[in-house]
Amino acid sequence: MRAILNADRNWGIGFQNRLLVHIPSDMRFFREHTTGNVVVMGRKTLESLPGGRPLADRDNIILSRDPSFSVKGAAVVHSVEELQQLIRDIETDRVYVIGGAEIYRLLLPYCDTAYVTRVDYAYQADAFFPNLDDMPEWELTEESEEQTCHNMEFTFRTYRRKQ
Ligand SMILES: NC(=O)c1ccc[n+]([C@@H]2O[C@H](COP(=O)([O-])OP(=O)(O)OC[C@H]3O[C@@H](n4cnc5c(N)ncnc54)[C@H](OP(=O)(O)O)[C@@H]3O)[C@@H](O)[C@H]2O)c1
Questions:
Q1: How far is it, in rounded angstroms, from Cα 93 to Cα 13?
Q2: N or C: which end of the chain has fewer CB within 10 A?
Q3: What is the number of the ligand 1 atom nearest to the C-alpha of 4?
Q4: What is the pLDDT of residues 110-152, one digit of tens each?
Q5: How far apart are the first and last CA of the chain?
Q6: Nearest C-alpha neighbor of 13 from the set 100, 97, 109
Q7: Which residues lie with the beta carbon below 6 Å from any ligand 1 atom?
Q8: Rounded-to-integer distance, Cα 95 and Cα 63, Å
């Protein structure tokens, strides 16, 4: 599986169930990677999407512990084991973990790649991604040139799990 996210200087990813930043080229990057593929997200992230609806043109899988939770246009699973069962026949590179903090933490051990749009600013945040720079099993393998959007400076980073 692959994780895809944007994070600030402190690995902050959200505040009050919203994203910290909206950068058009980051959204395009996200769309290009995930369209036609599988996205896995937590119930809270689903609720933070426009209209609380699953993402179009992707197979959406929602994690919730609530056995009665259901949503039109998405599969709901209740554990990592159930998720693994559901995606067992899908190429792992086609499965994108798209948040939020709890689900990234839960599924990072099953990911081999993380696409991080890294914004060079410290926002107020209450949701965080694990700091990959401090994790010896992960390495930064690629980073784009610095880009700017409305005074925000950011780069597209790729981290990979060491072999
Ligand atoms: N920057 C980014 O790229 C990015 C991307 C996505 C989200 N975010 C941000 O992240 C924040 C939301 O993160 P969050 O941690 O609060 O919520 P979350 O990870 O989206 O969802 C948490 C929910 O997932 C379910 N869950 C968690 N562990 C589970 C398990 N082991 N088995 C089954 N279900 C499980 C539970 O749902 P139930 O309560 O229904 O049981 C839990 O409440 C928001 O601020 C959002 O904007 C940022």
A1: 23
A2: C
A3: 3
A4: 999 999 999 999 999 999 999 999 999 999 999 999 999 988 9
A5: 15
A6: 100
A7: 5-6, 13-14, 17-19, 41-45, 48, 63-66, 69, 78-79, 98-103, 106, 127
A8: 14
Comparing C-alpha atoms, which of 39, 147, 124 is closest to residue 83? 39
Domain enclosing residue 114, as ranges: 2-161
Determine the longest span between alpha carbons in the chain, in angstroms: 46
Helical ranges in the chain per DSSP H: 24-34, 43-48, 80-86, 101-107
Residue 38 φ then ψ, to 5°: -110, 130
Q: Model pTM?
A: 0.98
Number of domains in the chain: 1
Residue with tokens 């939770």: 69
Q: What CATH number does the domain containing 138 carry?
A: 3.40.430.10
